[in-house]
Amino acid sequence: MKHEDYDVIQYKDGRPIKMWTKGVPVEEEAKQQLANTSRLPFIYKHIAVMPDVHLGKGSTIGSVIPTLGAVIPAAVGVDIGCGMMAAKTTLFAHDLPDNLGPLRTAIEKAIPHGMSPKTRSFKGRDKGSWETPPSAVDNAWAELKVGFDEICLKTPRLKNTNNYRHLGTLGGGNHFVEVCLDEANAVWFMLHSGSRGVGNAIGSHFIELAKQDMRTHFINLPDQDLSYLPEGTEHYKDYIQAVGWAQKFARLNREVMMQNLIAAVRTVISKPFETHVEAVNCHHNYVQKEHHFGKDVLVTRKGAVSARAGELGIIPGSMGAKSFIVRGKGNEESFNSCSHGAGRTMSRTAAKKLYTVADQIAATEGVECRKDADVIDEIPMAYKDIDAVMLAQSALVDVVHVLKQVVCVKG
Protein backbone atom coordinates (compact mmCIF):
# COMPACT_ATOMS: atom_id res chain seq x y z
CA MET A 1 0.00 0.00 0.00
CA LYS A 2 1.41 3.44 -0.93
CA HIS A 3 0.84 6.83 0.62
CA GLU A 4 2.26 10.13 -0.49
CA ASP A 5 5.00 10.13 2.17
CA TYR A 6 5.35 6.47 3.17
CA ASP A 7 4.63 2.90 2.15
CA VAL A 8 2.70 0.38 4.22
CA ILE A 9 3.57 -3.30 4.47
CA GLN A 10 1.40 -5.71 6.42
CA TYR A 11 2.44 -9.28 7.00
CA LYS A 12 0.05 -12.05 7.99
CA ASP A 13 -0.90 -11.83 11.70
CA GLY A 14 1.14 -8.66 12.11
CA ARG A 15 0.52 -4.99 12.73
CA PRO A 16 1.04 -2.60 9.78
CA ILE A 17 4.58 -1.36 9.10
CA LYS A 18 4.74 2.24 7.85
CA MET A 19 7.99 2.94 6.03
CA TRP A 20 9.44 6.37 5.23
CA THR A 21 11.97 4.79 2.85
CA LYS A 22 11.14 6.11 -0.61
CA GLY A 23 14.32 6.30 -2.68
CA VAL A 24 16.57 4.45 -0.21
CA PRO A 25 17.49 0.73 -0.14
CA VAL A 26 16.04 -1.61 2.48
CA GLU A 27 17.56 -5.07 3.05
CA GLU A 28 15.27 -8.09 2.87
CA GLU A 29 16.76 -9.24 6.19
CA ALA A 30 15.65 -5.96 7.78
CA LYS A 31 12.13 -6.44 6.41
CA GLN A 32 12.05 -9.91 7.94
CA GLN A 33 13.05 -8.47 11.32
CA LEU A 34 10.29 -5.91 11.02
CA ALA A 35 7.80 -8.66 10.15
CA ASN A 36 8.84 -10.61 13.25
CA THR A 37 8.42 -7.59 15.49
CA SER A 38 5.06 -6.64 13.96
CA ARG A 39 3.61 -10.00 15.05
CA LEU A 40 4.18 -9.43 18.75
CA PRO A 41 0.75 -9.18 20.42
CA PHE A 42 1.43 -5.95 22.31
CA ILE A 43 2.50 -3.74 19.38
CA TYR A 44 0.30 -0.63 19.41
CA LYS A 45 -1.21 0.56 16.10
CA HIS A 46 1.82 0.08 13.80
CA ILE A 47 5.61 0.16 13.56
CA ALA A 48 7.19 3.26 12.04
CA VAL A 49 10.34 2.74 9.95
CA MET A 50 12.84 5.49 9.26
CA PRO A 51 14.87 5.84 6.02
CA ASP A 52 18.15 4.83 7.70
CA VAL A 53 16.67 1.40 8.49
CA HIS A 54 19.03 -1.57 8.46
CA LEU A 55 19.55 -4.96 10.05
CA GLY A 56 20.03 -4.94 13.81
CA LYS A 57 20.18 -7.45 16.61
CA GLY A 58 16.65 -8.70 17.26
CA SER A 59 14.95 -5.45 16.33
CA THR A 60 15.68 -3.37 13.27
CA ILE A 61 17.82 -0.24 13.55
CA GLY A 62 15.81 2.74 12.36
CA SER A 63 12.51 1.51 13.78
CA VAL A 64 10.00 3.04 16.19
CA ILE A 65 8.20 0.40 18.23
CA PRO A 66 5.16 1.45 20.31
CA THR A 67 4.01 -1.11 22.88
CA LEU A 68 1.19 -1.54 25.38
CA GLY A 69 1.86 -3.66 28.47
CA ALA A 70 5.38 -4.86 27.66
CA VAL A 71 8.89 -3.73 26.78
CA ILE A 72 11.56 -5.43 24.62
CA PRO A 73 15.01 -4.86 26.20
CA ALA A 74 16.94 -5.88 23.06
CA ALA A 75 14.97 -3.33 21.02
CA VAL A 76 16.44 -0.60 23.21
CA GLY A 77 19.77 -2.41 22.99
CA VAL A 78 22.90 -2.23 25.11
CA ASP A 79 24.04 1.29 24.26
CA ILE A 80 21.10 2.69 26.17
CA GLY A 81 20.56 6.40 25.60
CA CYS A 82 23.08 6.59 22.77
CA GLY A 83 22.57 9.88 21.01
CA MET A 84 23.90 13.19 19.78
CA MET A 85 24.78 16.61 21.15
CA ALA A 86 25.57 19.71 19.12
CA ALA A 87 26.26 23.32 20.06
CA LYS A 88 26.72 26.35 17.86
CA THR A 89 29.52 28.76 18.77
CA THR A 90 30.27 32.41 18.00
CA LEU A 91 33.37 31.31 16.06
CA PHE A 92 33.55 31.28 12.26
CA ALA A 93 35.69 29.35 9.79
CA HIS A 94 38.28 32.14 9.60
CA ASP A 95 38.82 31.81 13.38
CA LEU A 96 40.06 28.23 13.03
CA PRO A 97 43.80 27.62 12.58
CA ASP A 98 45.09 26.77 9.10
CA ASN A 99 46.60 23.58 10.53
CA LEU A 100 43.80 21.66 12.26
CA GLY A 101 46.12 18.89 13.51
CA PRO A 102 46.82 20.52 16.91
CA LEU A 103 43.09 21.09 17.40
CA ARG A 104 42.33 17.42 16.82
CA THR A 105 45.20 16.44 19.17
CA ALA A 106 43.88 18.72 21.92
CA ILE A 107 40.41 17.16 21.64
CA GLU A 108 41.83 13.63 21.72
CA LYS A 109 43.75 14.48 24.92
CA ALA A 110 40.71 16.08 26.55
CA ILE A 111 38.22 13.26 25.90
CA PRO A 112 39.14 9.60 26.53
CA HIS A 113 38.18 7.53 23.51
CA GLY A 114 38.48 4.04 22.09
CA MET A 115 38.50 0.73 23.93
CA SER A 116 41.27 -1.62 25.02
CA PRO A 117 41.78 -5.03 23.45
CA LYS A 118 40.81 -7.73 25.94
CA THR A 119 44.43 -8.80 26.26
CA ARG A 120 45.61 -5.40 27.51
CA SER A 121 45.22 -3.93 30.96
CA PHE A 122 45.05 -0.28 31.97
CA LYS A 123 45.12 -0.82 35.77
CA GLY A 124 41.69 -2.42 35.80
CA ARG A 125 40.19 0.05 33.33
CA ASP A 126 40.05 0.36 29.57
CA LYS A 127 42.06 2.98 27.70
CA GLY A 128 38.86 4.85 26.87
CA SER A 129 38.17 5.66 30.52
CA TRP A 130 39.56 8.27 32.89
CA GLU A 131 42.59 7.55 35.02
CA THR A 132 41.84 10.66 37.09
CA PRO A 133 38.37 12.04 36.31
CA PRO A 134 38.11 15.86 36.26
CA SER A 135 35.73 17.92 38.41
CA ALA A 136 33.06 17.96 35.68
CA VAL A 137 32.79 14.18 36.06
CA ASP A 138 32.51 14.46 39.84
CA ASN A 139 29.69 16.99 39.52
CA ALA A 140 27.74 14.85 37.07
CA TRP A 141 28.35 11.65 39.05
CA ALA A 142 26.91 13.32 42.17
CA GLU A 143 23.64 13.65 40.25
CA LEU A 144 23.79 10.03 39.06
CA LYS A 145 24.74 8.55 42.45
CA VAL A 146 21.11 8.92 43.51
CA GLY A 147 19.55 5.54 42.77
CA PHE A 148 22.80 3.91 41.64
CA ASP A 149 23.16 1.59 44.64
CA GLU A 150 19.55 0.43 44.31
CA ILE A 151 19.98 -0.32 40.62
CA CYS A 152 23.23 -2.20 41.38
CA LEU A 153 21.32 -4.55 43.68
CA LYS A 154 19.07 -5.53 40.76
CA THR A 155 21.81 -5.47 38.11
CA PRO A 156 24.81 -7.23 39.74
CA ARG A 157 27.14 -6.91 36.73
CA LEU A 158 26.82 -3.11 36.95
CA LYS A 159 29.20 -3.11 39.95
CA ASN A 160 32.03 -4.41 37.76
CA THR A 161 31.79 -1.61 35.17
CA ASN A 162 33.90 1.51 34.88
CA ASN A 163 30.75 3.49 35.65
CA TYR A 164 32.33 6.57 37.23
CA ARG A 165 35.45 6.45 35.03
CA HIS A 166 33.38 6.16 31.85
CA LEU A 167 31.38 9.33 32.48
CA GLY A 168 32.46 11.96 29.97
CA THR A 169 34.13 9.49 27.58
CA LEU A 170 33.49 8.63 23.95
CA GLY A 171 33.81 4.88 23.42
CA GLY A 172 34.47 3.31 20.02
CA GLY A 173 32.66 2.16 16.87
CA ASN A 174 30.69 4.93 15.20
CA HIS A 175 30.97 7.31 18.17
CA PHE A 176 32.71 10.56 17.34
CA VAL A 177 33.53 14.15 18.26
CA GLU A 178 33.49 16.74 15.49
CA VAL A 179 34.16 20.37 14.76
CA CYS A 180 31.83 21.43 11.95
CA LEU A 181 30.92 24.43 9.81
CA ASP A 182 27.34 25.30 8.93
CA GLU A 183 25.97 26.93 5.79
CA ALA A 184 27.04 30.38 7.09
CA ASN A 185 30.54 29.10 8.06
CA ALA A 186 29.70 29.29 11.76
CA VAL A 187 31.57 26.75 13.90
CA TRP A 188 29.63 23.99 15.66
CA PHE A 189 30.79 21.30 18.08
CA MET A 190 29.06 17.94 17.73
CA LEU A 191 29.47 14.56 19.42
CA HIS A 192 27.92 11.11 19.43
CA SER A 193 28.03 8.72 22.39
CA GLY A 194 25.86 6.88 24.90
CA SER A 195 25.86 5.14 28.25
CA ARG A 196 29.17 3.31 27.81
CA GLY A 197 29.77 0.30 30.09
CA VAL A 198 26.80 0.91 32.37
CA GLY A 199 24.31 0.76 29.51
CA ASN A 200 25.92 -2.44 28.25
CA ALA A 201 25.69 -4.04 31.70
CA ILE A 202 22.07 -3.03 32.24
CA GLY A 203 20.97 -3.93 28.70
CA SER A 204 22.73 -7.31 28.68
CA HIS A 205 21.35 -8.22 32.11
CA PHE A 206 17.72 -7.54 31.27
CA ILE A 207 17.93 -9.02 27.77
CA GLU A 208 19.01 -12.29 29.41
CA LEU A 209 16.27 -12.05 32.07
CA ALA A 210 13.67 -11.55 29.33
CA LYS A 211 14.95 -14.62 27.48
CA GLN A 212 14.81 -16.65 30.69
CA ASP A 213 11.22 -15.52 31.27
CA MET A 214 10.25 -16.64 27.77
CA ARG A 215 11.76 -20.06 28.39
CA THR A 216 10.10 -20.35 31.80
CA HIS A 217 6.66 -19.63 30.36
CA PHE A 218 7.22 -21.64 27.15
CA ILE A 219 6.72 -18.58 24.94
CA ASN A 220 8.04 -19.24 21.45
CA LEU A 221 9.29 -16.29 19.46
CA PRO A 222 10.62 -16.00 15.88
CA ASP A 223 13.76 -14.40 17.35
CA GLN A 224 14.90 -14.76 20.96
CA ASP A 225 16.12 -11.16 20.89
CA LEU A 226 12.46 -10.15 20.80
CA SER A 227 12.03 -11.53 24.32
CA TYR A 228 9.98 -9.12 26.38
CA LEU A 229 9.13 -8.14 29.93
CA PRO A 230 5.38 -7.87 30.66
CA GLU A 231 4.14 -4.86 32.61
CA GLY A 232 3.34 -5.66 36.23
CA THR A 233 6.22 -8.10 36.68
CA GLU A 234 9.23 -7.42 38.92
CA HIS A 235 11.68 -7.54 36.03
CA TYR A 236 9.64 -4.99 34.08
CA LYS A 237 9.63 -2.55 36.98
CA ASP A 238 13.35 -3.00 37.60
CA TYR A 239 14.16 -2.55 33.91
CA ILE A 240 12.17 0.65 33.55
CA GLN A 241 13.99 2.07 36.58
CA ALA A 242 17.44 0.97 35.32
CA VAL A 243 16.93 2.06 31.71
CA GLY A 244 15.79 5.49 32.88
CA TRP A 245 18.95 5.84 34.94
CA ALA A 246 21.16 4.73 32.02
CA GLN A 247 19.48 7.25 29.72
CA LYS A 248 20.26 9.98 32.26
CA PHE A 249 23.88 8.76 32.37
CA ALA A 250 24.07 9.01 28.56
CA ARG A 251 22.73 12.56 28.52
CA LEU A 252 25.16 13.69 31.23
CA ASN A 253 27.98 11.81 29.50
CA ARG A 254 27.49 13.97 26.42
CA GLU A 255 27.23 17.15 28.50
CA VAL A 256 30.54 16.44 30.26
CA MET A 257 32.24 15.67 26.94
CA MET A 258 30.93 18.91 25.50
CA GLN A 259 32.38 20.86 28.46
CA ASN A 260 35.77 19.24 27.93
CA LEU A 261 35.59 19.72 24.16
CA ILE A 262 34.99 23.45 24.60
CA ALA A 263 37.85 23.71 27.10
CA ALA A 264 40.17 21.84 24.70
CA VAL A 265 39.36 24.17 21.80
CA ARG A 266 40.10 27.18 24.01
CA THR A 267 43.64 25.90 24.52
CA VAL A 268 44.23 26.15 20.76
CA ILE A 269 42.08 29.13 19.76
CA SER A 270 42.91 32.24 21.78
CA LYS A 271 39.98 34.30 20.50
CA PRO A 272 37.20 34.48 23.14
CA PHE A 273 34.01 32.71 22.06
CA GLU A 274 30.64 31.62 23.39
CA THR A 275 28.95 28.27 22.89
CA HIS A 276 25.45 26.80 23.18
CA VAL A 277 24.12 29.59 20.94
CA GLU A 278 21.87 26.81 19.69
CA ALA A 279 22.20 23.46 21.47
CA VAL A 280 20.60 20.04 21.08
CA ASN A 281 21.05 16.90 23.22
CA CYS A 282 18.93 13.98 21.98
CA HIS A 283 18.81 10.21 22.45
CA HIS A 284 18.31 7.81 19.56
CA ASN A 285 18.39 4.43 21.38
CA TYR A 286 15.86 4.65 24.19
CA VAL A 287 12.38 4.01 25.55
CA GLN A 288 9.94 6.38 27.21
CA LYS A 289 6.23 6.76 27.87
CA GLU A 290 4.42 9.02 25.40
CA HIS A 291 0.83 9.85 24.43
CA HIS A 292 -0.18 8.76 20.93
CA PHE A 293 -3.53 8.18 19.27
CA GLY A 294 -5.36 8.69 22.56
CA LYS A 295 -3.28 6.33 24.73
CA ASP A 296 -0.20 6.41 26.94
CA VAL A 297 2.23 3.93 25.39
CA LEU A 298 5.87 2.97 25.66
CA VAL A 299 7.75 4.13 22.58
CA THR A 300 11.06 2.43 21.85
CA ARG A 301 13.23 4.24 19.33
CA LYS A 302 15.99 1.97 18.09
CA GLY A 303 18.07 4.27 15.94
CA ALA A 304 15.44 7.00 15.71
CA VAL A 305 15.04 10.51 17.13
CA SER A 306 12.06 12.28 18.64
CA ALA A 307 10.69 14.87 16.19
CA ARG A 308 7.75 16.52 17.93
CA ALA A 309 6.47 19.75 16.39
CA GLY A 310 9.14 22.40 16.88
CA GLU A 311 11.61 20.03 18.57
CA LEU A 312 15.24 20.24 17.43
CA GLY A 313 17.13 17.07 16.58
CA ILE A 314 20.40 15.94 14.97
CA ILE A 315 20.81 13.64 11.96
CA PRO A 316 24.51 12.95 11.31
CA GLY A 317 25.92 11.65 8.05
CA SER A 318 29.31 9.90 8.22
CA MET A 319 33.00 10.83 8.46
CA GLY A 320 32.92 12.52 5.07
CA ALA A 321 29.26 13.47 4.69
CA LYS A 322 26.97 16.29 5.77
CA SER A 323 25.00 16.33 9.02
CA PHE A 324 21.75 18.12 9.74
CA ILE A 325 20.18 20.06 12.57
CA VAL A 326 16.45 19.53 12.06
CA ARG A 327 13.15 20.72 13.50
CA GLY A 328 10.39 18.16 13.97
CA LYS A 329 7.04 18.50 12.23
CA GLY A 330 5.14 16.41 14.76
CA ASN A 331 4.05 13.71 12.30
CA GLU A 332 1.84 11.46 14.42
CA GLU A 333 1.96 8.58 11.93
CA SER A 334 5.71 8.31 12.62
CA PHE A 335 5.06 8.61 16.36
CA ASN A 336 6.78 12.01 16.05
CA SER A 337 10.09 10.49 14.93
CA CYS A 338 12.84 10.82 12.33
CA SER A 339 16.02 8.96 11.41
CA HIS A 340 19.12 8.94 13.61
CA GLY A 341 21.61 9.11 10.77
CA ALA A 342 22.32 7.86 7.28
CA GLY A 343 22.17 4.16 8.14
CA ARG A 344 24.65 1.51 7.09
CA THR A 345 24.46 -0.23 3.73
CA MET A 346 26.96 -2.93 4.68
CA SER A 347 28.46 -4.56 7.74
CA ARG A 348 31.72 -3.41 9.26
CA THR A 349 33.39 -6.64 8.13
CA ALA A 350 32.18 -6.15 4.56
CA ALA A 351 33.43 -2.55 4.50
CA LYS A 352 36.90 -3.60 5.64
CA LYS A 353 37.05 -6.25 2.91
CA LEU A 354 35.80 -3.96 0.17
CA TYR A 355 37.69 -0.71 0.83
CA THR A 356 41.30 0.29 1.42
CA VAL A 357 43.12 2.98 3.37
CA ALA A 358 43.53 4.85 0.08
CA ASP A 359 39.74 4.84 -0.32
CA GLN A 360 39.35 6.17 3.22
CA ILE A 361 41.85 8.98 2.56
CA ALA A 362 40.02 10.02 -0.61
CA ALA A 363 36.57 9.84 1.02
CA THR A 364 37.60 12.05 3.96
CA GLU A 365 39.56 14.63 1.98
CA GLY A 366 39.48 17.99 3.73
CA VAL A 367 38.68 16.46 7.13
CA GLU A 368 41.32 16.31 9.87
CA CYS A 369 40.74 12.77 11.13
CA ARG A 370 42.21 9.29 11.39
CA LYS A 371 42.88 7.71 8.02
CA ASP A 372 44.06 4.20 8.88
CA ALA A 373 42.96 0.58 8.54
CA ASP A 374 41.17 0.53 11.90
CA VAL A 375 38.55 3.06 10.77
CA ILE A 376 37.81 1.70 7.28
CA ASP A 377 34.56 0.24 8.65
CA GLU A 378 33.40 3.85 9.13
CA ILE A 379 34.17 4.88 5.55
CA PRO A 380 31.37 7.07 4.10
CA MET A 381 30.59 4.55 1.34
CA ALA A 382 29.47 2.05 4.00
CA TYR A 383 26.51 4.34 4.68
CA LYS A 384 23.42 5.32 2.70
CA ASP A 385 23.32 8.57 0.75
CA ILE A 386 22.39 11.12 3.42
CA ASP A 387 20.67 13.38 0.86
CA ALA A 388 18.36 10.52 -0.17
CA VAL A 389 17.69 9.75 3.49
CA MET A 390 16.74 13.37 4.17
CA LEU A 391 14.47 13.54 1.11
CA ALA A 392 12.63 10.38 2.23
CA GLN A 393 11.71 12.00 5.55
CA SER A 394 10.79 15.48 4.35
CA ALA A 395 7.33 14.98 5.88
CA LEU A 396 8.91 14.36 9.30
CA VAL A 397 11.41 17.21 9.72
CA ASP A 398 12.54 20.54 8.32
CA VAL A 399 16.26 21.23 7.90
CA VAL A 400 17.46 24.12 10.07
CA HIS A 401 21.23 23.87 9.53
CA VAL A 402 23.52 21.81 7.30
CA LEU A 403 26.86 20.96 8.93
CA LYS A 404 30.09 19.69 7.38
CA GLN A 405 32.89 18.42 9.62
CA VAL A 406 36.44 19.79 9.40
CA VAL A 407 37.75 17.80 12.39
CA CYS A 408 36.60 14.31 13.37
CA VAL A 409 37.81 12.28 16.36
CA LYS A 410 36.86 8.58 16.29
CA GLY A 411 37.05 6.11 19.14
Automatic annotation (TrEMBL):
It holds the Pfam family RtcB. It catalyses: a 3'-end 3'-phospho-ribonucleotide-RNA + a 5'-end dephospho-ribonucleoside-RNA + GTP = a ribonucleotidyl-ribonucleotide-RNA + GMP + diphosphate. InterPro entries: RtcB, RtcB-like, RtcB-like_sf. Its EC number is 6.5.1.8. The keyword GTP-binding applies. PANTHER family: RNA-SPLICING LIGASE RTCB (PTHR43749). This is 3'-phosphate/5'-hydroxy nucleic acid ligase. The lineage of its organism: Bacteria, Pseudomonadati, Pseudomonadota, Betaproteobacteria, Burkholderiales.
